[in-house]
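Encode chain A's predicted structure.
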Amino acid sequence: MTDNNNQQTDSQAADIESSRIISKFWLIPLVALSIGMWMVYHQWANQGPLITIEFVSASGIEADQTKIKTKDVEIGVVKKVELKPDLSGVIVTARMNPSAEILLGENSKFWLVRPRVSLNGVSGLTTLLSGPYITLEPNTEGEQSSEFIALETPPTTAAGTPGLQISLNSDQELSFKAGDPIIYKGLKVGEFEDMHFDVDKRKVSYNAFIQAPYHKLITENTKFWNASGISLDLAANGIEIKTGSIETMLTNGVTFGIPEGMPTGKRVTSQASFEIYKDYDSASNKRYKLGVNFVLMIKDSIRGLTVGAPVEYRGLQIGKVVEINLPGLAESKLLDDEFAIPVLINIQPSRMQQPDNQAGVEIIKRQTLRGIEQGLRASLKIGNIVTGGLYVDLQHYKDAEPEPLSRFHGYNVIPTTSGEFAQITQKVSGVLDNINAIPFAEISQDASQLMQTFNSTALALQQTIDTLDGLLVDVKDQQTSENINHAAESFTQLLKDYSAGSKTNQELISTMQQFQTTLQQLIPLLQQLNQKPNSLIFSDGTQPIIEPKAQSINEEIQND
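Encoded structure for chain A:
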């Protein structure tokens, strides 16, 4: 009974099993987590690149506020701003849009846009309301980069502007800055973009841009020279004042062109490098590349002679002065009567219609050495009396004493003769010496004695003249009286001859009567000729008109 009961009890006990089914409630957080993870992955997979930009300062830049734009389209935002470890600037970390990744070439440029006032104008006024932002000037050339250095100022030429990019170099004391103009015949055709100074070469280089269509003017023979401010040149040729445009007078600027006499040359189509010369003359003289050096041993004063002064032959410039007072003279010759100052000159073949090559150099060298044997001499002459500038003049002198060819430190020496200034000085000195040699004291004493003698003679002469004047007055008075009496007697006799009843009076009356009778007889003839001018040749058969004659004056007087 007991076993059966136990079996019945075991058979009636419930079977218990553990449940492994997950509740449907947990599906909601799982789906939300999946969506979140997918969104994170999608955001991470599709976000743009992270870049760093180095700025000098973080003025106006704020994280999550400052935007990055190109052509006024937002392409990124600043995420973080932090100092550089060496405190030389700040590092700005920015997140770019995915579409902007292709714009991040290694030559792309960034700069901060904010209000700026300069000589070139006012810019960035829109940021007064929107706040500063960073501008990207994309450059797709080269490899992509994620690290950039921002420009301190915006570039003067926008990307994509048609024209020509060039480099300008200068070792002169010139200073140009971004925005300074490049002028061509008074027109602004380009401007400087930035500057770089090479400490090793001590030379300044500039990046500049020439706008289209003026970039077509740039050729391989184009020369650039300074056109800043007002240039005053006091040289052997006189006083020369040069000015540029009003813009270059207020700031700085350069101009360019092809010097007169040079060919145009091939057009420059890619970035090229050019030198900036001091002025047009320096740029023009640069075309004369080769030359022959000679030394002049000058014994006269060289005051007024400068480096660059012209060397002329019969008024034609054939070279220039290269160096004055060459080193290498023996100390024993200093302050000696025969001391001569060595002056180095350069004669350029192309100025003498010779080729600008080594063959032209040899021709000039032979001609000059032959000329020295034929009396070629050099001298200093005054180029301008106002400035006192001197130049070197080469002339042939027939009476020049022959001199052997000599050399000084490897250069051939051209003999010299005294210049006109030295000759004038010598003549003036000679005249002054002659004047000083005149015995003025003795001459003064002799002149004093001569004046005393002259005064005595003049006094005696004056007394003689007074006596003579008295005699002449007496003689003149007696002679005048006699002339007046004689004239009165002659006039009285003339009146007697023409008085009434005299013989002369009767003859005159008779002559007048005869003349009157003759006129009366001619009256009929004159009347006939007046009426018929041809009556003296052809007769018309008419009888002359007989007019009764009146009694003459004499008859009337006799009848009375």
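The longest helix spans residues 440-497.
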